[in-house]
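Hello K.,

You asked for the raw outputs rather than the summary table, so here they are, unedited. I folded two proteins back to back in the same session to keep the settings identical. This is the first:
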Amino acid sequence: MRYDLYLCILVVQFFFQVIHAQSGDSSNNGAIHESSGCAFTSSATGNGFLARFYNYTLGAAYSKTYLESGYATYGKSLGSVSGVTSVNFQYSGLTNGPLTRTIYGKSITVTNFTLMLTGYFYASESGYYKFSLTNSDDAALFYAASASAFDCCGSTSLSSSANLDDVSIYTYYTGPNGYRQIYLEKGYFYPVRLAYLNMQGNLNLNFGVTYPSGAYVNSFSGIVYQFDTSSTVLTHQHQLL
């Protein structure tokens, strides 16, 4: 990368970080008392997340809109991997040039890519679940238990009703760690979507969930599932007043 272009990118990054620090980020605190879940009448078709990969559009790292849907509009699909139960990864000591590594068993140019993870999170307890994203490098965005993750009880493709105001967590490199407590009811499956990107160099994704009982998990076998979109479902809405 040319030095002048690299310097320009650093300036843009700094600008977004200053704005973020001054305005705060309401998506990284508080609790969500309303949730939308599903009760399926058929068995799950898969265990774990579905991971979709896209190339990265230079300069979009700190745009919520890009992470919400822009990567699918402007980025080229690089394929997918099913059955992802261990979602976290880290590579350090990387240069800013194109470098290839393995993510979920798939060879990817890790120095510039976008990732979307989708699935249904099973609530085995009733209460507030604390979803967390820490040390994201470069940026990550998380939706849960709403139509903005994807259309509830339907396809895990992008939701037609996605709303940036529904973002549960948004975090980025050098920014604050993000968390959100969401009330989920035992026995239901809740749509979740995690979007991540790396724009250059090192990368890190660290996602986990603390259960109402206090147990912490960052591996999702037997917790996140896939379902046939033609399954008969009952939509469950829950709200604490």
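The second followed immediately with the same parameters:
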Amino acid sequence: MPQSSNYLPCAVIKADYLRQILTVWVKFQNLTNSAAIFFAT
């Protein structure tokens, strides 16, 4: 069995994992920005 066939799903899983972390981080940033605006006003 070639190595590349095992590598591709691993890369896809890592990319999806990073995308989920990025999505959560962006949501958290938006939440903190909203809270800062809320408390500043």
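The mean pLDDT is 87.

Happy to rerun anything if the numbers look odd on your end.

Regards,
P.
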